[in-house]
Amino acid sequence: MIMGNYDNIAFVVVSIYGLLILYFYYGWKKNKEFKTDWIKNPIQISLVVACRNEEENISDLLECLVKQKYPNNKTEILIVNDHSTDSTENIVREYSNKYEIVKLLNLPTNLKGKKAALSYAIEKANSELIITTDADCTMNENWLISLLSYYEMHKPKLLSAPVRIKHKNTFQHLQAFEFMSLILSGAGAIGVNRAIMCNGANILFEKSLFAECNLKKDLPSGDDIFLMLHAKSSDKKSVRFVKSHDAIVSTKGAISLKDFFHQRVRWTSKSKSYRDFDIVYTSTVVAVTNLVLAIGLIRAFVEMSFVRIIMFFLLKIIADLPLMISGSRFFKTQKSLLLFLPLQILYPFYIVFTASFGLIGNFTWKSRKFR
User: What is the pLDDT of residue 342?
Assistant: First the structure.
C-alpha cells in the first residue's frame, strides 16, 4: 500500500523540501554583503581556541591570529590545551613567549573535552566579548575587524560567520561542496530569523550568553548550537550572520572516509537533544526527503523504470540550484558546481546512513571514543 502511494508521498515530501530551501535562499539573499569598516573605538576581545593534538595545524592558526589588523592592546588569544600527547603545548608556549597577547592554558587533569576547555578559558577571559575558532583554521588579516565592525553596528548576542573547507583532492572537494550547502542553509535560516545552525569555528558572542546557557555537558559537541538557541529563545533577531569575504574562516576537510563519517556522525548525534521547532522541522524534512529519494532510486533500478524518480530529483535540483549558485559565487568556487549532479545521487544514501548512526551509533573523536 505504501509503495503504491509512493509517487504521491514523494511529490508532497520533495515539494515541502523545495519550498524550505527556497525560503533559505530568500534569507541568504536578504542578508546583504557586509563591507568591513575600521572601528573607531576598538573594544576588548578574547579569542578562544580549544585544541588537542594539533601540532600540524596550530602554528598556521597562530600566525593568522597574531597578524590581525586589530589593536594588540585590545586583544587576548587564549589557547586551551586539552591534554595533547604531541607537540601542541610546546608550539603554543613558544608563541606565548614571543607574543604577549598569546596565552597558553592547560586544562586541569579532572577536565577533558572541547566543552570543558571552552568553559575553562571563557571563565578566565578578560573580555566580555568572545570569539571562538578551531585549531585547524586559517583566516585573513581583516577577519577580526570584519566581525567586530559588524558587531559594533548591529550588536547581536551571537554572530555567525562563514566557514569553508580547503580541499587538495577530489574527496575533500566533495566535502567542501557539501559543507558549503550547510553553511548557506544556516545563513539563509538566520536571514529569515529562523536560526537552525552555526559553526563554532567562526562565531562571536557575549560572555554573559555563555554563562546563562545550558551547554548539555554530557554531549561531546554542540556548544555552538546551544549558544545560538539560547540567544534565539530571547530574541530571534539577536542571532545574525555576517556575509563578508573578510569574515571567512578556512578549515581542513577529513583525510579519510572513516574520519569523515565519524565527524558527520558526531554532528548528527547531538540532534536528538534539540527541541527547537525550526531545527526539528528542517532536519525532519531533509531526512525524510532523502529517505524517500533513496527508496525511489532502489525501486527504479529494481523495476527498471526511471521516469518518476528523475522527475522528483529534478524538482529537488530546481530548489537547490539557486542557493548553491549564489553561494558558490560568494565563496568564489563556481567550478564546484560540477559536483552538484553527482552528489545528488550519493546524498540520499549518505544522509540516511549518517542520520541513522548519529542517533544510535558510536564515534571516535581526537583519539577518544564516545557513545
Answer: 87
Q: Are strands 368-370 and 163-166 parallel, antiparallel or unpaired?
A: unpaired
Looking at the domain assignment, is residue 122 inside a domain? Answer: yes
How high is the pLDDT of residue 135?
96
Structural domain range at position 239: 34-185+194-254
Residue 329 lies in a domain: no
Grid cell for residue 299? 525501486
Asked if the structure places residue 148 within a domain, the reply is: yes
Q: Please report, as a single letter, which amino acid is at residue 310.
A: I
Residue 20 falls inside a structural domain: no
pLDDT cut 90: percent of the chain above it: 69
Predicted confidence band of residue 360 (pLDDT cuts 50, 70, 90): low
pLDDT digits (tens, 9 = 90+) for 297-316: 999 999 888 898 999 999 99
